[in-house]
Amino acid sequence: MLLAADLKKGRCGESLKTITVTRGVELPIGALSRNEITKLDFSDYDLQVVDAIVLAAAITNNRSLSTLNLQQNNSGGRWASAIADALAVQPDQWFSFNGLPLRNLKCNQELELDLRDLTIGLVEGMVLARWLPLNRSLHLIRMACGFEVPINALRTGMVTKLSLSNTGLQPEHAIVLASALGSLETLILNDNHIGGMPGNDVAEGFEALGAALKENTSLTELKLIRTQMGPRGAIALAAGVMLNGEQRTGSLADHDDQGKVANDGDSFGSIPSDEELDKLDEEVDLSTIKAMAGAFLFNQSPKQSYNCAGVKIGIEGKEVLAATNSNEMKKPTRSLTSLDVRQNYFGGDGARALTNAIAMAGQTGMWVCFNCIPLRDMAGDQLTELDLEHTGIGVTGVHVLANWLALNGSLQTLNLSSNELCGLDSSGNGEYEASGIKALARSLVLNKTVGKLVLDSNQLAGRQCVDQEEHDEGINALAESLSKCVSLTALSLGKNMVGPKCTTAFAMCLSSNMLHIMMDCGINNASQQMDADCFGSDCSDEEYSESSDKGGDFSSIKKLARAFLKPNLDPGLEGSSNGIASEDLMALIDGGVLNGSLQVLILDDNQLAGSSKSSYGENVKGLESLGKALKDNVHLTTLSVRKNGIGLQCVAAFTPQLALNGWLKTLDVGDNPIFGDPAHQLAQVVLNHSTLEVFCSIPVRGKMNQQLAINLQIKAEGSGVPGVLVLSHLLPHCSALDFPTITVTKGVELPIGALRQNILVELDLTNHLMGPVDGLLLGISLMFNKSLTTLILDHNQLGRHKTGIHEEADECEDGLKALGDAVKESMALTSLSLRDNKLGPKCAAAFAAGVMFSKSLRTLDLSDNRLVKMIYVKLIDVQGSDLSPGSTCTYQECECPIIEGVDSDGEIRIQNIRGVKALATALEINTSLNTLILDGNNLDDVDHRLIEGGIKDTYRYHSDDGLAALGGALKANNNLTSLSLRGNKLGAKCAVAFAAGLVFNRSLIRLDIRDNEMEDTFFSYEALLKLAEAVVAHPSLKVFNSIPVQDMKNDTLAYLNLKGKNVGSTGALVLRKLLVSSSTWLCTLVIAAEVNLRMGALRGNDLKELKIVNKGLEAVDAVILGAILSFNSSLNTLILGENQIGNWNPRLGSNNFSIGIRALSDALKDNNNHLTTLDLSKNNMGPGCAAALSAGLAFNGSLNTLDLGGRSRMIIQALPYEHEEGIAALGDALKENKTLTSLSLSLNGLGPKCAAAFAVGLTFNRSLNTLIMTDNLLCSQHASSGFKALAEALVVNTSLKTLDLRGNVLGKDGERLAQEASDKRPTLSICYNAA
């Protein structure tokens, strides 16, 4: 630093040649001092701060250097400032700096400055900021990040508002912008990085903005939300805010160059009082004189003049006062009235600096808004209610608010929820700072009007969970202020993770004052472990023995409860969202919370039904205690227990006690899973209650009349089934009402008024988030409707509560039962769609009772629900002597198949088919329904994890009971014309069961069973044949799986396109029967992509070869080709390689099956065809397919060449997964076949087991000439016996001439065996890869 000072003064520079401050960096000080260089390039030299300071000092006295390049160096704040200040000493000297055209800027030669190809950092920004005021020609500056400064528009006043939010601004951009504010009135820089990257706390950008504010007289609004402002940045900005509009050469404020502000916020010192100023007769220090002068300049002086005669003010004091009197220091003209710095984390120091700055500047009375706080309205006493919820005012905001609140004389309600008042966001990010809450507490003591204060969700306890440390500084300050506050009557502290320490503090406060406080005291987990004496000396009741064993501490809860025993006026306790469990509620009741004069008790969003929200009414003790306390209570008028997981058992325990209460006026049990009989019992008690006026936001007594409710939108959101039942009893007695809508679920407005007035014909409420309660209300309303014909309720949740409870227990049938009753009574409704509504067996059974006797319903859509479910049930809930898998048991009065036997928890797994059986029974009796859609309902629901082991072990898991019931219904029903059962996981057993009923049906016209599992692994071929025969023989069926059955039977089709229709395996078999027996006029049949079969040519025997390679053929297409082979006698070559006929699944092993291969096998049995060549290579075939094809190959008398080559090396299986059943069947077929001469089995993963199995059949074959078994795994050093068997078969076989074994690693033993076989059979050629 001393060296830099000497260089600035021109000392010692000429005598030096170079100076090295940082290793490897030699600064040419001598040449600079002697003005010998014009250009200097130190780019990418890693210059440090000391290098920059020394270099800047040398540049200050230089008069020759005109071009300087310091790019790609460490451009920190001090580094950049030193260089920029040195360059600004002689602006006329410089031509270029780091690519910036400084001379052109100084000489007004630039109209547009494009910096998009330059790297702009702090030093470039600072230099540019010093040159821009010298320029008068520039119109626009463009930077790489897309940031553009309209310089000319700002200067001329053409732009008064500039918004650059979320544009990637860095500190250097803010520096440039600050130098060009001009006449700008509004500047918005939200969502940028003016403070650098998170945690860096770069202050230079905010320093530049602060410095600009000191001189600016036009800017009124500045927004810096989420700009990464740190403590240094906040302090720098505060200095500018405090001195905004200062237009004088000096400053009365004694602040340093860093912009630091005293912690007390008054950099002018304390202004003397009138008495103190009148009695000044001693020497006065300089700070007092500055305060006097500042008072004059800022209109803060309590007097118009001061007599300073005889006062020893000193020389400096005289200069200050002289400057004031001579107007050398002009009165500042403040412009900034609105500032927003929310969601920045600048800690306590930054918050205090900004708070003091706002307070100082705010004494002029010009502030309009700070961090969304309406300061002007507060100062003018124009507000009675202020809602700042979710505005994020932060620690600084609450400090400023506290200053204004202390002097406010009108505000009555203040909501500060979710504002990060302690420096922590909702995720716990940030640093805990209680100074803001403490300031707010002090202001409440001074304020005389605020009656209600809401501080929810502000992390006041400084923790995210009970395992973290609980901070009680802020809460204690609030508690202490309550004893001095004269106006506050309601205080809410919900969702603040307040624990035992803070709860105890509030309890002590309430016991020592006479205020009537409604508290959301946040007693979250107040029963956590504290010490061995879990209840204290007076808390050993037996009813808490279970919790006592767990170490629960309820002493703080009891202290809070006993605070309400005193005779206050109208106290209330609000404990919402605090994790209060059943045991906590018992502690409150035992502590006497209902024994005093408590009138309001709100315990919403807790866990009163158990120890966790996922429990389902498992702990009724808390609700029982509450009910017993209500029985004798004569003070409590309001009780709310919403969102507490209160289930059927809890409400059953609570309801009888409620019936004995005679004082309660308001009760809310909404958003709880209360339904069924308990819900009806609770509704009946509510309707009969002598004093209850409001239930779940529904006016029960004296409010449902025409004068108050006509044209009124009733909102009873979350009222649940009990609320709707109450409402349904009241609405019929309000005949004069004209309700446009009623809301019982948030966002769902039901047009009840229009339904009651019979003005709707069609109603579509698709995707309206409707729940069971909406269905209940809608169903009840439809009972009175006579006009609605079409009702669409798709994509809702009419069958399920949204409580997070497990699916079976969560199913609620009340809504569907009401809709079923409406369908039963309606004479107008013809179409009802309930697609995707989370309907389960219970809902289906409840709804079916109404469908059974419907007289008007024609179309019913129940698709995409879960009418059949696999569930676990306890043994006590079922009846049956045999509970083994495969048998049946009685569950809820319905015979259900057992899937899994008794497990370790004493439960069995059953297939709940109660719903589909109820629907089948309804179909037997119903006389109106024409169309029934049951797609996507898992009617044969099977857990696929159970069936991957193979069909022999898992066939029993499939149940045909549901489909058998539907098939039985078809026997009796003579009205149903259309039935859709797509996507129901129906297996072969279901196909047989359904076919048995379909045979006797005479009404169906359309039937669709596509997208099921009646194929491949899960069925027998004969089962599908039975269903296909029933379809073809049906007298009235016109369309099956999109196949025009009737037209094909009548032989009236010439063109049929099956592309993309996915007719399924059963559909393919139906097509096969129809193609063979009729459809002689069909000329073109389109199957897979771009495959048009010329049926005329095939029937006329005009084709010799048919080649369909790599066209995406599937099993159903192969079925059709098999049908063609059965009546064609000319085709001799069929090439179907590289398709998907096989459906191989390695997990299913030998059980893999393809209906397409089976159909081709059946065609091979028919000796009427003349097929000689069949290519099925690369068709994803497995062992099951090989076995199916072998059945036809054994009896075929024409085939010469068969290619069954595998797909690729990728499917070759490791030895432990080898399945020999398929290749063994193929070998057996070769025993019988007399015509096959060439067979390819390459790339099939054949191992030693397969070799041995195939060898048996090969031994007896007398036709095969060529056998290709390349790229397999026939021999292994650990298992060569299989290949040995194959070698022995080669010796016995007399027809084989060529054997290709290339690609098999035979090893020494294998090669020896192959050579021995070749030696014994001279006519046999064996090809293999020698080791």
Notes on the structure:
This protein is of the alpha/beta class and 1331 residues long. 35% of the residues lie in helices and 12% in strands. The protein contains 48 helices and 52 strands. The strands form 10 sheets. The chain has an 11-stranded mixed sheet with strand order 14-15-16-17-18-19-20-21-22-23-24, with helices on one face. It has a 9-stranded mixed sheet with strand order 28-29-30-31-37-38-39-40-41. Strand 16 (452-454), helix 18 and strand 17 (490-492) form a beta-alpha-beta unit. Helix 40 (1064-1077) packs parallel to helix 42 (1115-1127).
Keyword list:
1331 residues; alpha/beta; eleven-stranded mixed sheet; nine-stranded mixed sheet; Leu-rich_rpt; Protein nlrc3; LRR_dom_sf
Summarize it.
This protein is of the alpha/beta class and 1331 residues long. Helices cover 35% and strands 12% of the residues. Strand 28 (762-764), helix 29 and strand 29 (790-792) form a beta-alpha-beta unit.
Describe the SSE topology.
Elements lengths: L1 H7 L10 E2 L5 E2 L1 H5 L5 E3 L7 H12 L6 E3 L7 H11 L8 E2 L4 H5 L5 E3 L7 H10 L8 E3 L5 E2 L1 H6 L4 E3 L7 H8 L7 E3 L15 H12 L5 E3 L7 H12 L31 H5 L7 H12 L16 H12 L12 E3 L6 H15 L7 E2 L4 H5 L5 E3 L6 H12 L7 E3 L19 H12 L5 E3 L18 H10 L7 E3 L7 H12 L6 E3 L24 H5 L5 H8 L9 E3 L7 H10 L8 E3 L18 H12 L5 E3 L7 H12 L6 E3 L7 H13 L5 E2 L2 E2 L6 H4 L4 E2 L4 H11 L11 E4 L2 E3 L1 H5 L5 E3 L7 H11 L7 E3 L14 H4 L3 H12 L5 E3 L7 H11 L7 E3 L7 E6 L3 E2 L8 E4 L2 E7 L6 E6 L1 H12 L5 E3 L10 H4 L3 H4 L6 H12 L5 E3 L7 H11 L7 E3 L12 H13 L5 E2 L2 E2 H5 ...
Parallel strand pairs: 3-4, 4-5, 6-7, 9-10, 10-11, 11-12, 12-13, 14-15, 15-16, 16-17, 17-18, 18-19, 19-20, 20-21, 21-22, 22-23, 25-26, 28-29, 29-30, 30-31, 31-37, 37-38, 38-39, 39-40, 42-43, 45-46, 46-47, 47-48, 48-49, 49-50, 50-51, 51-52
Antiparallel strand pairs: 1-2, 7-8, 23-24, 26-27, 32-36, 33-34, 34-35, 35-36, 40-41, 43-44
